[in-house]
């Protein structure tokens, strides 16, 4: 049984009220004519792509947004559970994220990570939490509907290497005339599919060494986020993020509202501080669940 299913079994009652099934249509019409792949000379260079992506990421040291959140997953009985909530997303580059989920001002779930650890807090019924260290992460470990550190990459707002890594795939044209770029990661590689006009990610996938999808996102509705006191600098971020985790048959959908670049309180990513603030009664160490 995967770690996500173990955690899901332990927190079924809570998840049952906060899971929203949604369908992401990834295919196209079978009658779409074949698009002739342009020559490599028509593609922007890796150096140019990196310059554009990294300049945008450098203007996004942090993000804060109100969120509408939906979850979907298959429970232990083989039934799909669904519900939705609201809350906040907080991100601090390069490795911290927190998503608070609740209703009517109450916090039900809290998903997050910092540089050392990742965690999931369930406050709906049992007031318990799970925490694990990044350096102890094994391939089957998942927590909540998506691993928090993966979620950072799936937002499409992070840097890429300034210089092209050795043996990378791309940039190449896709059949739908977007630009695909594969970059190495500790578990395999990250695939970026970019809009050629703005070089903004429209899709991000994290794959293992064999090419199997670990998690993937579709990014929609890019909008400008003004930076106070910076004149015309106004980087664009997606306002809708739809994530799937095929192996877990899990999904998460985020809609962002009122997105701002603002300083984020470190307590948002501090598990010990959160555990005390939310009066968590039971803490499960994931390395002890193996």
Throw out a few tags for this protein.
16 strands, 14-stranded mixed β-sheet, mainly beta, globular, 290 residues, outer membrane lipoprotein receptor (LolB), chain A
Written account of the structure:
- The protein has 290 residues and is mainly β.
- It has a single domain, classed as outer membrane lipoprotein receptor (LolB), chain A, CATH 2.50.20.10.
- Helix content is 13%, strand content 39%.
- The strands form two sheets. Strands 7-8-9-10-11-14-15-1-2-3-4-5-6-16 form a 14-stranded mixed β-sheet, covered by helices on one side.
- The termini are close together.
Number of helices: 5
Give me the side-by-side strand order of the main sheet: 7-8-9-10-11-14-15-1-2-3-4-5-6-16
What's the total number of strands?
A: 16
Please name the CATH topology. Answer: outer membrane lipoprotein receptor (LolB), chain A
Which spans of ≥5 residues are poorly predicted at pLDDT below 50? 1-41
Mean pLDDT: 83
Order of helices and strands: HHHEEEEEEHEEEEEEEEEHE
Beta percentage is 35-45%
CATH superfamily placement: Lipoprotein localisation LolA/LolB/LppX
Class by helix and strand content? mainly beta
Shape: globular
Give the radius of gyration.
19 Å
> How many structural domains?
1
Second CATH tier, the architecture: Clam
Distance between the termini: 11 Å
Specify the biggest β-sheet.
14 strands, mixed
């Amino acid at each position: 049984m995967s770690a996500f299913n173990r955690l899901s079994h332990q927190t079924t009652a809570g998840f049952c009220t906060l899971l929203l099934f949604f369908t992401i249509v990834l295919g196209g019409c079978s009658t779409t004519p074949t698009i002739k792949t342009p020559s490599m000379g028509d593609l922007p260079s890796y150096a140019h792509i990196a310059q554009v992506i990294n300049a945008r990421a450098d203007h996004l040291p942090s993000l804060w947004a109100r969120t509408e959140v939906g979850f979907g997953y298959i429970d232990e009985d083989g039934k799909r559970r669904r519900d939705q909530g609201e809350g906040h997303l907080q991100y601090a580059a390069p490795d911290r994220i927190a998503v608070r989920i609740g209703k009517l001002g109450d916090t039900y779930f809290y998903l997050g990570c910092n540089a050392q650890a990742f965690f999931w807090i369930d406050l709906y019924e049992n007031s318990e939490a799970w925490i694990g260290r990044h350096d102890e992460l094994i391939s089957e470990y998942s927590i909540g509907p998506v691993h928090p550190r993966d979620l950072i990459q799936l937002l499409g707002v992070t840097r890429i290497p300034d210089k092209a890594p050795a043996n990378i795939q791309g940039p190449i044209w896709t059949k739908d005339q977007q630009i695909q770029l594969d970059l190495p990661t500790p578990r395999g590689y990250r695939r970026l599919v970019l809009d050629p006009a703005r070089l903004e990610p429209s899709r991000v996938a994290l794959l293992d060494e064999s090419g199997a999808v670990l998690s993937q996102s579709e990014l929609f509705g890019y909008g400008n986020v003004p930076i106070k006191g910076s004149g015309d600098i106004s980087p664009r971020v997606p306002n809708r993020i739809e994530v799937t985790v095929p192996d877990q048959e899990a999904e998460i959908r985020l809609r962002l509202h009122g997105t701002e670049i603002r300083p984020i309180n470190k307590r948002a990513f501090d598990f010990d501080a959160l555990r005390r603030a939310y009066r968590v009664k039971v803490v499960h160490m994931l390395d002890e669940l193996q």
